[in-house]
Amino acid sequence: MSKQPYLSVIIPAFNEQSRIADSLYAIKDYLSEQPYRSEMIVVDDGSNDLTTEIVKFIDIYGKEVNEHDEGTLMENLKNVGKGYSIARGMMRASGQIILFTDADLSTPISEIEKLLPEFEAGYDVVIGSRNMEASVVEKKPWYRDAMSLLFNTAVRLISVSGINDTQCGFKAYRREVAHRIAMRQRIYGFGFDVEHLYIARKSGFKIKEVAVEWRHKEGSTVDPLKDSITMFLDLLRIRWIHRML
């Protein structure tokens, strides 16, 4: 088996002490059953709870009982944003394919099996989607549906057309593509997903959207009003920042 991982899994985390353990065990159990080598990178975004301590304990325990490979923990000195955390993880990752997934595993890690074949078909960025006919989605709160509808409409008009769901937290990239996008990224809040896709399309990378399973998990830190305004302004910033692409 090659020493280089085939798959890198990045998990951004902020104050996730109540669920990070279950998510990490689920990811580690799944990856340990796969025929390829993998790595897991947790990027803690300045948590002020026990998130980092739990991650460290799980790694130490897993290594001692020889059940799981040790992962990598990166810590931001302060809370900067999900986009910043993912960019850090991407630059650190060494897998041929780099996936990021939300810490609550709203999309089960096993859904990666739907994304990986698309890289064999020649795509450079493969993203999970909750808005396709074959998507399996547990009903979202009304405000999430409203935000999604309005934001996706704005995205198609202002930034990236032809994509049903830019915000699903389950995206995979070829390593060299991930590194190039992360180096150009300037949006560190929730709008970073759109920036990634905007850079990818302007750079000529092939994007594929794939229907996935998604379940609503309680504990979201999204503010319906504040974050909607911020994300809309990010769309305008993306166009301006990358106008030379």
TrEMBL record:
Main site of residence? endoplasmic reticulum
EC number(s) on file: 2.4.1.117
- Keyword annotations from UniProtKB, A to Z: Endoplasmic reticulum, Glycosyltransferase, Membrane, Signal-anchor, Transferase, Transmembrane, Transmembrane helix
Its topology with respect to the membrane?
A: Single-pass membrane protein
Q: Which residues cross the membrane?
A: none
Coiled-coil ranges from the UniProt annotation? none
Presence of the UniProt keyword Endoplasmic reticulum in the record: yes
Q: In its UniProt record, which GO terms are filed under biological process? A: protein N-linked glycosylation
Which pathway does the UniProt entry assign to this protein?
Protein modification; protein glycosylation
Record-linked PANTHER family: DOLICHYL-PHOSPHATE BETA-GLUCOSYLTRANSFERASE (PTHR10859:SF91), GLYCOSYL TRANSFERASE (PTHR10859)
Q: What protein family is recorded?
A: Belongs to the glycosyltransferase 2 family.
Q: What is this protein called?
A: dolichyl-phosphate beta-glucosyltransferase
Organism of origin: Leucothrix pacifica
